[in-house]
Design brief:
This protein folds into 2 domains: 167 residues, Rossmann fold (3-Layer(aba) Sandwich); 72 residues, ProC C-terminal domain-like fold, CATH 1.10.3730.10. It has 13 helices and 8 strands. It has an 8-stranded mixed beta sheet with strand order 3-2-1-4-5-6-7-8, with helices on both faces. Helix 2 links the parallel strand 2 and strand 3. Helix 7 packs across helix 12 and helix 8 crosses helix 9. The longest helix is centred in the last third of the chain and has 23 residues. GO terms for molecular function: pyrroline-5-carboxylate reductase activity.
């Protein structure tokens, strides 16, 4: 277990980067060298300026702020939009420290894109956190680039453990992971929306409908976590033979939820591959012989 973290730079400290930044602070883990964070506007930068130990940089006031932050920190987290990643990497490449660990937060951007710009001598990891990281309940997929040391992986893992659980995967699995844990919260919210609408259709007002739907999801997942039981077993306990729940489950099973989720995650995976192509430098986007 890493007891301290080295200096950190969050380049593009938006929703996800900001969540991880706040998770580090809330964890109480000492950060040796402090934390730097960049945002495009002074308004966004001001939201982080009051956090203890954070130097918040507005790029509209300091155009070379990304380069300065990258030069001062050992761990550099890249949190800009995927299409912006190559330009940012070119900007910071000459300024990175020799011991730099660069971690991607960008969906669909490959490790090869990073190394093609930064060079093979820079330690690079690719991460896929999800939005429950905002409340310390995230699931982060972590893929290490070739040559990443055990120590570097340990630092990255400890960083993301401040906002939830970490799953280490080879890079070829991280896009698939993103279709489950990365996009998954949206699937859950959609189910809650639809269950709320069903409650309204049964005659409940919006407030009570939301309480029932949201509270049921929160309670069910809390019970799942507390008992450690398989979801199928907990479902069986609720589903009495010839009862109302059994009748409802039969309707959901006829709708082929499994097939729908397989189709949905396949669509998300296809888009992740498109993003990889869109964010790759021209030379990187051309497959090499044997791939």
């Amino acid at each position: 277990m890493v007891d301290t973290l080295p200096s950190l730079a969050f380049l593009g400290a938006g929703s996800m980067g900001g969540a991880i930044l706040r998770g580090v602070i809330a964890s109480g883990i000492p950060v040796d060298g402090g934390i730097l964070a960049t945002n495009r506007t002074a308004q966004k930068a001001a939201e982080l300026a009051s956090l203890a130990g954070v130097q918040s940089i507005a790029l509209e006031d300091e155009p070379d702020g990304n380069a300065r932050a990258a030069a001062e920190a050992q761990v550099v987290l890249v949190g800009v939009k995927p299409a912006m990643v190559p330009d940012l990497l070119r900007e910071i490449a000459p300024h990175l420290r020799e011991d730099a660990i660069v971690i991607s937060l960008a969906a669909g951007v490959t490790l090869r894109t990073f190394t093609s710009i930064l060079g093979t001598g820079v330690t690079v990891l690719r991460s896929m956190p999800n939005t429950p990281s905002l409340v310390g309940k995230g699931v982060t997929g972590l893929a290490a680039g070739e040559g990443a040391s055990t120590a570097a992986i340990g630092i990255a893992r400890r960083l993301f453990e401040t906002v939830g659980t970490v799953i280490e995967v080879p890079e070829h699995r991280i896009d698939a992971l993103s279709t489950i844990s990365g996009s998954g919260p949206a699937y859950v919210y959609l189910l809650i929306e639809e269950l709320t609408r069903a409650a309204v259709d049964r005659g409940f007002d919006e407030a009570d409908a939301r309480t029932m739907a949201e509270g049921t999801f929160i309670g069910a997942t809390a019970l799942l976590e507390a008992t450690g039981e398989e979801p199928a077993e907990l479902r069986r306990r609720v589903t009495s033979p010839k009862g109302t729940t059994e009748r409802a489950i039969a309707v959901l099973e006829r709708a082929d939820l499994g097939g729908i989720f397989r189709e949905a995650t396949a669509a998300a995976l296809a888009r992740a591959k498109e993003l990889a192509g869109e964010s790759a430098p021209v030379t990187d986007a051309i497959p090499q012989s044997g791939e």
